[in-house]
Design brief:
Elements (H helix, E strand, L loop, with lengths): L4 E5 L6 E9 L5 E14 L2 E11 L2 E7 L11 H5 L3
Length: 84
């Protein structure tokens, strides 16, 4: 549908800094959005962001801070294969 996003990556660390895209608001017209990632830490061998900010039309819309990630936290194959 002609939608696209632009990913900006930190050249030194290779981690994503932000994603820029447009999303339709109520009423139809797309608004520019930026998801800005920070506070990168290693969890279970992966680097993940613990903080991100959502900017809408250049103004802070929301912020999120992650307290804890659980990656491969011990679910069995049997538990993963269950259907909802």
């Amino acid at each position: 549908n002609g939608e696209n996003a632009r990913l900006q990556v930190d050249e030194k660390t290779g981690t994503p800094q932000k994603i820029l895209y447009s999303a339709a608001a109520a009423g139809g017209e797309g608004q520019p959005l930026e998801e800005i990632y920070s506070d990168w830490r290693e969890v279970a061998g992966l680097r993940v962001p613990f903080h991100w900010t959502l900017m809408q039309n250049g103004k802070k819309f929301s912020e999120m801070t992650v307290q804890d990630y659980k990656i491969n936290s011990g679910l069995s194959d049997q538990e993963l294969s269950k259907r909802p």
